[in-house]
Please model this.
Amino acid sequence: MILCYHKVSPERKTPWWVSVDKFYSDMIALRSRKVVSLDDYDPLNPDHVVITFDGVYKNIAQYAAPILQEFRYPFELFVIGDYIGRDNEFDVSEPLTPFASIEYLKRMEAMGGKVQWHTRTHALLTQQDPALSAGELEIPEPIRRCFPLPHFNWFAYPHALSSKGSRALVRTKFKGAIACENGDPSDQWNLPRKLVFEGTSVRNKKISIIIPNFNYGHLVHEAIDSALGQTYPADEILVIDDCSTDNSRERISTFRNRVRVEFNERNLGIIDNFNKAVSLATGDFIVFLGADNRMRADYLEKTVPILLAQEEVGVVYTDMMLFGDRSHLLAEKVGAQQVTHENWIWQFPEYNAEALSKLENVNFIHGSSIFRRKAYDAVGGYRKSGRPEDHDFFHRILMHGWKAARSPHALIEYRQHSENQANTKLSNEMEIALLKRELAFALEGTKSSNIVQLGTKIERFSQKIPYLNRSLNFLSGTILKSLGVLKTIVRTMKLMRPRRS
Amino acid sequence: MSSSSQNKIQSADELNQHYSAEDPWEYESNPHDAVRIQRFKRLIAGRRFRRALDIGCGNGFLTREIPAAEVMGIDLSTAAIEIARSKLPDPRFQFDSLSVFDAHSRTLGQFDLVVITGVLYPQYIGGAYRLIDANLRSLLCPGGRLIHCHIFEWLRYTPTLNLLSRETYQYRDYTHVLEERVAE
Model:
């Protein structure tokens, strides 16, 4: 898969602009694959990914390149030669935006970028005569000198369009060339690319957060809010209520627009409810969050890359923060570090042979550790045993041969409260605010979904361009043929015209 | 201030125009803001900080209440900073015009308290929360505290720091959330 970005920026002015947050999320998702340069790319290897930029805009140097450097991903910069350091005046449908100068391109080279060619003026090669096309493929000497080989091995067709003639020309000058969705993975001079918009997913693994609830109606909104606030969003948040007898049902329903909700008709108890929840969830990675607890906003951002990058890891556990009026009781027992009188950080041991040998008796993999569905399936899920269900479950996963990994951050906030602790007044105010916010989201959702829809429409349209082009060729062929027929008719008519005497 | 435009970031010019009035959001006269100040003062009562930063300090409305040996206030609007400087000439306070995008430990050093109010909205930071969050984390020394105060209905982002306390209260037509978080 070759990805194609145009502009990456805090602002999104048109669908061709991708937000910094979305770009960062994409880079996390690519942890499960191998990001390579075009020189090392095997189009038939489903794990290979290439990251390309067309333009290349200055905002790529400002926002995308530092992220790519952090991830140590190589990337390809397809420049339009005559516009380096200028702006996109030729692109009349887009707001004026500066392109990267030679200096910025040099900076990006140092961050892992390779400079490639995207013609001199972004002219459509299919409409050019061969001499003009050849000029478009010519890299001026001063630019070539700035970026000697292995730069400029690759070429990208403007508007992703090529003709037999232009492809033949490109063959003589470049190692390979890329189009967009219209390309062909078996043609080195017309490889396909995926255009990335704000709504385009590059993930190949899904994440589910499951919040099982039983009579925590006064607290569950905090858990849901923390799941919704993840910097690396889950694909699915499932709230499953095990037939609560308090007002949980209506309180959970507030979030219906943004989370999946399941209400059990009868109380199943922990084990059966957990197994039912997993059977309903669609994620490859699954985490249970207690309805009285919270996740830190970077829970998924910190844990998911470990599961993506290391297939032998079946479960990732974290440290936790204990909070609430009874937190000191557990904290003192386990030796947690005090932050305030109601907040304590509990750190767990690194995963190694010694820790594993003790796991039988001492659980350090808490119930809100994120696990791989494959590992769940391998051991047959949760089961009834003499021990707490999570301890038993994770122990069996490790005994089965899966590895565990620790993310050394207090990513779970674990409530230690007495029955009457919950500050109901505060809770109610929070809930009203949340309800208002959900309404605001529902309203805003109609707007932002329009943008996403527009992006999808453009994506679809761009896929049709080659067909459109083909149709135009066909049409012009037909017109030419018709002209020929007309000429014959005219000639015949001339012949048939009765001569005036 | 509006919560709508998700993609457009307000420019410094727009904010400067806004600050042609000394107290454009009527913080000094609105009873809801008096409550806000009270809540903030109660949260930090009896504490003493070494070096504090107020991001989006405006005309210094909250900055002046921060109990620290050294207090720095930053705001994108140069007009707001001029007003803050003239109102608080005390050398304990330093005001600079700086965007939250440029507020990083590389240029400002670290703080044991960072206060951020009314900044984490889409019209100021667009779709680049990650950059702001990384900046905030860089600015805090280990164990340093982040106190933020925002209109809950407009807030789209949660700082990636552990939550120590949270309170909500009515603010004008909205709900305010006042949180304290701790750096690792």
